[in-house]
Amino acid sequence: MSELNELYQQLILEHNKTPRNFKKLEQFTHDADGYNPLCGDHYHIWLKLDGETISDIGFQGSGCAISKSSASMMTSALKGASLTEARALFEKFHSVIMTKIGDPIPEEKIEELGSLGALAGVREFPARIKCASLAWHALNAALTQTEKSISTEIEKK
Fold this sequence. Notes:
The protein is an alpha+beta fold. The chain has helices at residues 2-17, 65-78, 83-97, 107-112, 126-144, and strands at 30-35, 42-50, 53-62, 149-151. It has one domain: Sufe protein. Chain: A (Alpha-Beta Complex).
């Protein structure tokens, strides 16, 4: 298992060093911002939909290795996906990283995520869950077009 963890760590570091789809789309149909005020991670997600298909996707911003890797891996997984597939992947990813520490994650759930399964280990570090999920919540905001900007923290009035 330690070899698998090492492989996952290498994958995360590779996506941080050389993020995929790290670009602003000049022509897009949907977009949203994601911001984590506790650590300063901030990403903007752009989507270009052709009908029900994500024909292009990009992101820009800055953050820790986990947040940047997660955004890179997410955009790689979703380019060419249908909206139904994108929403389903969001739900699968979210359910895995939100699994409580100590609760087992069925191996098939992680396998369904493909390379995104490398991020399953962040659930053991509660402060890092927001890092891994930030771009995903920005994606969800872009897809639903309910919010232009999301935050990992609830604003207090």
